[in-house]
C-alpha cells in the first residue's frame, strides 16, 4: 500500500495523488483476485472505499460528485 509518513504536511495535490493511487490499487487488487477466483468483480460501497483509503466517507462522496460533474461536462462538450 502507498502511504506518506505525515498527512499533515501533505499538499492538496499530494493528497489527490495518494487517494488516486490507493483507489487504483484497491480496484486492481479486487479485479485480479476476481479473475483468479473465476468470479465477477466486487462493487465497493463508499464506506469500504473510505476505510481502505483512510479518509472519511464524506471525502469520498465529494470526490465522487466532483468526478461525475467533470464526466458530465466532458460528455456535454463532445
Compose a concise summary of this entry.
With 78 residues, the protein is mainly α.
Topology:
Blueprint: H1 12-36, H2 46-53, H3 57-77
Features:
single chain, 3 helices, 78 residues, mainly alpha, globular, 69% helix
Distance between the termini: 37 Å
Low-confidence stretches: none
Residues in helix, %: 55-70%
**Biggest sheet record:** none
Portion in strands: under 5%
Number of helices: 3
Structural class by SSE content: mainly alpha
Radius of gyration: 15 Å
Average pLDDT works out at 85
Count all strands and give the number. Answer: 0
Shape: globular
**H/E element sequence:** HHH
Give your account of this protein's structure.
The structure is a single chain. This protein is mostly helical and 78 residues long. It has three helices and no strands. The protein has helices at residues 12-36, 46-53, 57-77. Helix 2 packs across helix 3. The longest helix is centred in the first third of the chain and has 25 residues, at 12-36. It starts with 11 loop residues before the first helix and ends with a helix. The relative contact order is 0.09.
Amino acid at each position: 500500500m502507498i502511504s506518506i509518513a505525515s498527512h499533515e504536511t501533505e499538499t492538496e495535490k499530494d493528497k489527490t495523488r495518494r487517494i488516486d493511487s490507493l483507489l487504483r490499487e484497491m480496484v486492481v487488487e479486487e479485479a485480479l483476485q476476481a479473475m483468479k477466483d473465476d468470479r465477477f468483480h466486487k462493487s465497493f460501497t463508499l464506506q469500504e472505499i473510505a476505510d481502505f483509503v483512510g479518509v472519511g466517507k464524506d471525502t469520498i462522496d465529494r470526490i465522487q460528485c466532483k468526478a461525475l460533474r467533470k464526466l458530465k461536462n466532458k460528455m456535454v462538450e463532445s
